[in-house]
Amino acid sequence: MYPKTQSVLKSILSVLVLLVVISNYIGCIEDGGLATNPQAPVISSIDPAEGVPGDEIGISGNNLEQVDTVWVNGLLAPVVAKVATSLIFRITTDMTSGPVTVKNAFGTALGPDLTVLELVPAIEIDSVRPSTVARGDSVSIHGRNFDLLSPAFKVLLDQAESGRILQSSELIQAFVPDSANTGNVRLVTDGDTITGPVLAILGDPTISIISLSPPSGLPGSDVIITGENFDLLSPGYQVFFNGTPAQSSIDSPSEITTDVPFQATTGPVTIVDNGSTITGPDFTVLDIAPVITSISPTIGPVGAQVTISGENFGVAITEVRVEFNGTEAIVSSIADNELLVTVPAGATTGTVTVTLLSNGNTATGPVFTVQAVSPVINSIDPASGPTGAEVTITGQNFGTVISNVQVDFNGEVATINSLNDTQIVATVPDNATTGPVSVTLLSSGNSASGPVFTVEDNLPVITSISPTSGPIGTEVTIIGNNFGFTSADVEVRLNGQLIEADFVDLTEIRFSVPFDATTGVIEVTVVASGQTAQGPVFTVEVPVVTLSTLAGAGPNDGVDGPFQGVETNGTMLFSNAASHQLKRVDAAGVVTLFAGTGQAGFVNGRLNVAQFNFPAGMAMDSQGNIYIADVNNHVIRVIVEVFDPVSAGTRLDVQTLAGIGQPGYADGLAQQEAQFDRPSDVVVSGNILYISDFGNHAIRALDLQTGIVSTVAGDGTAGFNDGNIQQSQLNSPVGITLDNNGDLIIADALNHSIRRLLTASNFLLTVSGFQGMGLEDGLNGVARFNLPYDVVTDSQGTIYVADSGNNGIRKICGGFTTTLAGGGPPGLQDGEGSQARFNFPSGIIRVTDTEYWICDFNNDRIRKMEIGF
């Protein structure tokens, strides 16, 4: 750890011990003066105040962590759990009501009375034998605790009361009356009802299907199902046509009305009710054939809209094909009686047909006459320019389908960028020469010749830039023509500043906005000719970074050495490393305790009894499980939801996930073989938990499915080397995060650099910070850091760094490293950017792309950084 950090922690712990002593002294005075033995136990309350054997009872008070004996009315009670201010014990079967007493080595405390209630057994029905009987027969009802029934208890078979004989606590003999129907067996006693299995009565009416009317028809048509006892069907019954569900309604006990579903096929009609199937006769589904009654209009050019009226077209565009004299057309909309289609390119005069793809049935309609349309050119703009320039051709009858139009510049075919019936935008082709512009409709061969376009020397042309604004590091693409083929062929300038291009070809240039760039016009100069093209203005967005204090400004805010954290649905869970606890802070700055007793230790279990030893980085998976790097216990802990026998619900528990609690360097089974040395951070990627193993100078990976720990970067020794798993070296990595590609970004603290691990190949690369310790902005190759402790990325892949030794927040984007806030000597100051001051910021957490929460370790604060433009 950073030496200054260790000294600050020791000071904090000393103050905490003094506060505990003072608190105990004040507590003694409040309890009635200076006690002769202030470590004796004190009972303030019990909860609940009554219970049955097996229940757990809580005691609240003081000095309960050393209690060795609990009595209830003089009988010993088993202790389940205990801490300083609370204790849980269990009621045993031999206990009776009376006072609760506790004892430790320093004294005894007498508490309130506990009322012990008697367990009342439940009356239950297990089975009825036989399960099918005739009226007048007898049945045996088997179960338990029948002797607890009142003398006047009743046996109901469905709704009919039966004569009965109580044979024993486990057997009742009952007689089936003539009024009984199939239904549940019930026992009624003192207003309570105990329900048993269903008893089937022989001779009950059955449901049957007799006939269908009609026995065949088209999908969508109505069918009457005739049968018996349909009134006995449950509300959840379902009618099927050869397995396809249908809509239906019960008209009477002998009739059901249903309609043939559109996906139905020929086969039996069935009714399914409560798992039983009633099968009826087969229903024959007739094929649907389309019908064309008219088309409108009956004459027009390619691209015209035509309405086809008729029947049985269906409702899905993908299930119908329309052709104009054999050429398939595009269907714009469909209804069962109407289609809207476009006359396709290549169509010729002939009949219109509609085919249903589901069965191949086809309808032939009237003849559609395809008109031959001639294009007209009125003007071109501009009338001269280099190859690659965009030219707008204005006129008539161009149509709307680009594939049906050809534009030529003096015989050279051009690319059409956009088209409507009166305007074409085309690019002057590379081999064009001065001459007329022409437009040809390929469907008819009709052409129009327009004005002459004069091709100038191949001047560079900028047609657009994307984006038109952005912060430092933004990659900008210049689109145009005649640029060249390498970066040596052009000079790119932004507001007069010469910029090195990352990529150059004839029609495209790409560059990254440098860290000292300013807003202005983009220019491209061709070196060979000296000719310059001027493009649009690019606006360099300067981020406005504002720092404020979210939590920790007050003496009782509960922020004491915040180290790192994780965002949890609008709040942040952070490691209060100095107090060995996990705490939560919300957007209003309210801090609450989440887990840990405040004492260093290694205890699993409930959140309020668990202990950590300098918890650091955390991560949360999609199921809400929280993983913690427990530094000085040399293990990875996890907080999971478990069953709570006390509440019969669930609770959160702290468990050990990996590591054996001793420092070392070993891969293998997570809880039996794997060893770590001061693990400092974790991050989840699918089924893999990545671990920053600070003391082993390595990145480890835990497979959450197999429970195997392996090393993916570093070799256990401090070093600075990129490469594969056999070559890579790190030096005390701390914070880790995942970028947009699923690769790992690493704060390599004692190498004073930011590294990237390509997780698909486990290949380690250096992103920024090649030159050793320092504070330097600029190209990533010359930038310097000082003990970077944490990293996070935004949705665009920009990296934000808690540069702890430099007391600042840094940003890595587009090949450049810049300082966003702080930087320089330690301090405590809110405000904008460079005015802000930190004192060893050790953690940074992304809330949104424009809001970040920072663990300001030595200032005992949670800070909020907001980024605007």
List strands and helices in order, with pairings.
Elements lengths: L2 H28 L11 E6 L2 E2 L4 E7 L6 E4 L2 E2 L2 E4 L3 E5 L7 E7 L2 E10 L7 E6 L2 E2 L4 E7 L9 E4 L2 E3 L1 E5 L2 E5 L7 E7 L2 E10 L6 E6 L2 E2 L4 E7 L9 E4 L2 E3 L1 E5 L2 E5 L7 E7 L2 E10 L5 E6 L2 E3 L3 E7 L8 E5 L2 E2 L1 E6 L2 E5 L7 E7 L5 E10 L4 E6 L2 E2 L4 E7 L8 E5 L2 E2 L1 E6 L2 E5 L7 E7 L5 E9 L5 E6 L2 E2 L4 E7 L8 E5 L2 E3 L3 E2 L3 E5 L7 E7 L5 E9 L3 E8 L10 E7 L2 E6 L4 E5 L5 E5 L9 E2 L8 E6 L5 E5 L4 E10 L4 E10 L9 E2 L9 E7 L2 E6 L4 E6 L4 E6 L19 E6 L5 E5 L4 E6 L4 E6 L9 E2 L8 E6 L5 E5 L4 E6 L2 E7 L8 E2 ...
Parallel strand pairs: 2-9, 11-18, 20-27, 29-36, 38-45, 47-54
Antiparallel strand pairs: 1-3, 3-7, 4-5, 4-8, 6-7, 8-9, 10-12, 12-16, 13-14, 13-17, 15-16, 17-18, 19-21, 21-25, 22-23, 22-26, 24-25, 26-27, 28-30, 30-34, 31-32, 31-35, 33-34, 35-36, 37-39, 39-43, 40-41, 40-44, 42-43, 44-45, 46-48, 48-52, 49-50, 49-53, 51-52, 53-54, 55-79, 55-82, 56-57, 57-58, ...
